[in-house]
């Protein structure tokens, strides 16, 4: 059965984005192995994703049947994001590094999908993720913040938050020294993409 792929882009650089180039290549590899795959794309930079606020909090904690029209409109995007995430078999996330961290728009997406009762619950033993574990491939792009280095505050946060909601199968493809040696950085990333294991 063909898979559903959720692609999340967050770079503000448009066609010059390295993370978008990597997500393009990752998607191309997956769809070559599964030509019938469905790709759902969310471009968070183009979406001008709203940050969560008090009105959002009130809306999402109101049972759907009891929401006002305004609350339903406020909660709609978050509900859609969660539905898309749960429906996906593979999630491909573009992670450009801005000031040693992830872009604000990607953080906002995480805020929208991290909801008690929807993607996690608290139990007597602590939080429990409610999203079925699925494969996540992250395209990490940086001018000089090396993946996993002491100043990389993005990848560990993203991996933690995905694990918090139940997703632990997370792997990274990195072009992480573009300002230092772009050719070598892209070569390493392309080799990592080529080595991604996909079902026959």
From TrEMBL:
Belongs to the azoreductase type 1 family. Also exhibits azoreductase activity. Catalyzes the reductive cleavage of the azo bond in aromatic azo compounds to the corresponding amines. Binds 1 FMN per subunit. The keyword NAD applies. Residues 4-195 form the Flavodoxin-like fold domain. Signal peptide: none annotated. SUPFAM superfamilies: Flavoproteins. InterPro entries: Flavodoxin_fold, Flavoprotein-like_sf, FMN-dep_NADH:Q_OxRdtase_AzoR1, NADH:quinone_OxRdtase_FMN_depd. One of its GO terms (molecular function) is electron transfer activity. The keyword tRNA processing does not apply. FMN binds at residues 11, 17-19. Its cofactor is FMN. This is FMN dependent NADH:quinone oxidoreductase. The gene is azoR. It catalyses: N,N-dimethyl-1,4-phenylenediamine + anthranilate + 2 NAD(+) = 2-(4-dimethylaminophenyl)diazenylbenzoate + 2 NADH + 2 H(+); 2 a quinone + NADH + H(+) = 2 a 1,4-benzosemiquinone + NAD(+). Its EC number is 1.6.5.-, 1.7.1.17. Keywords: Flavoprotein, FMN, NAD, Oxidoreductase. It comes from Actibacterium naphthalenivorans. Homodimer.
């Amino acid at each position: 059965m063909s898979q559903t792929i959720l692609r999340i882009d967050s770079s503000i650089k448009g066609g010059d984005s390295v993370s978008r180039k990597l997500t393009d290549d990752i998607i191309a590899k997956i769809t070559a192995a599964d030509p019938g795959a469905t790709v759902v794309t969310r471009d968070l930079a183009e979406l001008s994703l709203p940050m969560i606020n008090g009105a959002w909090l009130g809306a999402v904690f109101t049972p759907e049947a009891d929401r006002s029209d305004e609350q339903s409109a406020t909660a709609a995007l978050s509900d859609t994001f969660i539905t898309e995430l749960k429906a996906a078999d593979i999630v491909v996330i573009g992670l450009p590094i801005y000031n040693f961290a992830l872009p604000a728009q990607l953080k906002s997406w995480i805020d929208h999908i991290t909801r008690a009762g929807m993607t996690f619950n608290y139990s007597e033993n602590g939080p429990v993720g409610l999203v079925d574990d699925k494969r996540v491939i992250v395209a990490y792009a940086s001018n000089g913040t090396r993946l996993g280095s002491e100043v990389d505050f993005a990848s560990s946060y993203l991996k933690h938050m995905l694990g918090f909601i139940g997703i632990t199968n997370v792997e990274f493809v990195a072009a992480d020294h573009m300002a230092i040696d772009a050719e070598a950085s892209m070569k390493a990333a392309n080799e990592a993409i080529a080595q991604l294991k996909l079902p026959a």
